[in-house]
Amino acid sequence: xxxxxxxxxxxxxxxxxxxxxxxxxxxxxxxxxxxxxxxxxxxxxxxxxxxxxxxxxxxxxxxxxxxxxxxxxxxxxxxxxxxxxxxxxxxxxxxxxxxxxxxxxxxxxxxxxxxxxxxxxxxxxxxxxxxxxxxxxxxxxxxxxxxxxxxxxxxxxxxxxxxxxxxxxxxxxxxxxxxxxxxxxxxxxxxxxxxxxxxxxxxxxxxxxxxxxxxxxxxxxxxxxxxxxxxxxxxxxxxxxxxxxxxxxxxxxxxxxxxxxxxxxxxxxxxxxxxxxxxxxxxxxxxxxxxxxxxxxxxxxxxxxxxxxxxxxxx
Length: 315
Ligand code: HSE
Prior knowledge:
Layout: E1 2-11, E2 20-34, E3 39-44, H1 57-70, E4 76-82, H2 92-107, H3 114-125, H4 131-136, E5 139-146, E6 162-169, E7 175-182, H5 188-193, H6 201-220, H7 226-229, H8 236-239, H9 246-255, E8 260-263, E9 270-275, H10 279-295, E10 300-306, E11 313-314
Parallel strand pairs: 3-4
Antiparallel strand pairs: 1-2, 1-11, 2-4, 2-5, 5-6, 7-9, 7-10, 8-9
Bound molecules: L-homoserine.
L-homoserine is lined by residues 11-12, 17-18, 89, 127, 129-130, 188, 191-192, 235, 265-266.
C-alpha cells in the first residue's frame, strides 16, 4: 500500500492570478493499493458528498498515470483522508489530483518524473497555480507554456502540448497565514465566469507591478510594502459580489496586524500574511476576520497555518 500526504494551497496571493501559489500545513492523505475490485473510502471533508466511483477525481487522476505508463487502467482500492475544506479556495481539487498522481506513480515504481506529473496535474486542473505548490511545496511562480509535443513514455501521444514552467521562491522562516474560512462554498467555475474577458492596460500594469513587488518582498523578507503588494485589480474586485463582506474582512485583518490580505484562490476563504506576530496576535487577526464575516451575515472559522515547504510526500 502507498500512502501520500499532500498540502492545501492558497493561490493568486492577490495580484498573481493563475500564477502564484503557496502550500500550507493542512493535509489530505491518499492511500492506494492494487485490488481486484474498485473501492473508494472517504473520511473527513466530502465523506458524504464526493463520488465513490469512477467519477471520483482522485480515481480519475490515478488512472491517468496507469494509462500514460502502461496504456491501460489498473483496479485499485483508495482511501482518502480529507482535511482540506471543499470549494473554499484552498486547493482541495489540486491536492486530490496531485495526491493521486504521486501515489499512483509510486505504486507502479515511479515511472513518471516530477515534471511529467506536474504536466498531467495542470492539464487536469486547467491552471497550474495550485497544483505546483501542492506537488513541490513552498511559494511557486508557475506558468503554462506551449511546447513542441514530446514524451519519453512510448506511445504517449495524447499529452497536452503545454508544460508548466515554475520557480520555487524562498520565504521568511517566520511567515504564517491566517485563514478565515466561511461557511459557504464558491465554485471556481462560477468565480471564473464573473471575470471580464478583457482588462485595461492600466489594471494589467498595476497587477504586474504588485506581483513583482510581492514576490521580491517575500523573497527578500522585506515586508514594508506587503499591504500594497497584495492588492489586485484583475479578479478580486469582480469576485467581491460572491464574498459578502470581503473588503471589510480585508480591512479588519490589516487593522489587527496582518501584513497583507487577499482572497484565497477563487474564494470563499480570505487569507492574511502574518510575520513575527505572537500566537495571541495571530488569534486576534483571525477573530477580527471571523467577526467581520459574521457582521456580513456569514459564520466562519479561522486557522493559523505554517507554510508547507515539502509538497506531496510518500509516507
Ligand atoms: N487561479 C485560480 C482562480 C485559482 O483564481 O480562478 C482557483 O483556486
